[in-house]
Amino acid sequence: MKPNRLFDIPVKEDIKILNRNLINLVPAQDPILYAASEHLLTAGGKRLRPSIVLLVSKAINEKILPSQHRLAEITEIIHTASLIHDDVIDDCSTRRGIKAVHTKFNNKIAVLAGDFLFAKSSWYLANLNQLEVVKIISKVITDFAEGEVKQSLSLFDITLPINNYIEKSFYKTASLIASSCQAASMLTSNNYRISLNLYLYGKHLGIAFQIIDDILDMISSGNILGKPEKSDLKNGNLTAPCLFTLFEQGYIKKIIKREFCEYNDIEIILKEIKTGRGILKAKDLASEHLQASLNCLKYLKESDSKQSLQNLTEYILNRLY
């Protein structure tokens, strides 16, 4: 698998099937609710999370079970629901290169569409008939809510420790990846050591993915991100590049404390972030988590799927280039 191509992987045909199945999994009697759900589900995206679920499943057992295929679909539905809610909270106008659901419809429809997708995912999850898997994945939805609350309480907070930022990144991004890796393992194996290490693999991979995403928010265009750039900074969500820059350039604290109310405040902060060492330190932090994720794969036997899980660390880091 080339680092910049996610779908040169042993499960690329399974992902094609998943793409066809997704919209059939969320029928709704109300045409507006259906249209709102379909709008984002069919927009594509990287399908990173279901790809990881399928790769983990194949790495453990070579053959992907029907329950693991369904888990991959559930994971993407949960992720899509969280994006719809995130966009309402952050007032992002685009997502995956198209209009955000609340922009195309309205906030009320978007919130209901997100709730609808969460409910659908819970129904399919319950039908796996695996209580421990239900517990693990259900916790993710709680984590999403906790992550949003933690973020809303720390906007423009110049005293936010890096560890709190990492914790928030876990709740908002890594929790789903970690838990779905663990759940995929539990659907085919009773090996606690393997399932725990796969959970940790997903945790570190997810945290690194979020850090890289936060770097891209500072340096990339909206076309690359699929959403408006600099949206985190504008909303007062201080991410790793900004927090590291704060340690070096203390004078920007007053700019953040006044919530960018003066002309060119955003541009001043961005210049300091790009010319200082904030982005490099954030990249180093992501690299540490990627290395930790690699170390968690040592209990898996050698296979193309394991190699793809290892290569995903390169893919994530190479999103910067």
Automatic annotation (TrEMBL):
Record-linked Pfam families: polyprenyl_synt
CDD domains: Trans_IPPS_HT (cd00685)
GO biological process: isoprenoid biosynthetic process; quinone biosynthetic process
UniProt keyword Magnesium present: yes
Keywords, ordered alphabetically: Chloroplast, Isoprene biosynthesis, Magnesium, Metal-binding, Plastid, Transferase
Superkingdom of origin organism: Eukaryota
Cofactor: Mg(2+)
Protein's UniProt keywords contain Transferase: yes
GO molecular function, one term: metal ion binding
PANTHER family xref list: ALL TRANS-POLYPRENYL-DIPHOSPHATE SYNTHASE PDSS1, GERANYLGERANYL PYROPHOSPHATE SYNTHASE
Family: Belongs to the FPP/GGPP synthase family.
Name the record gives this protein: Prenyl transferase
Protein species of origin: Boldia erythrosiphon
Gene: preA
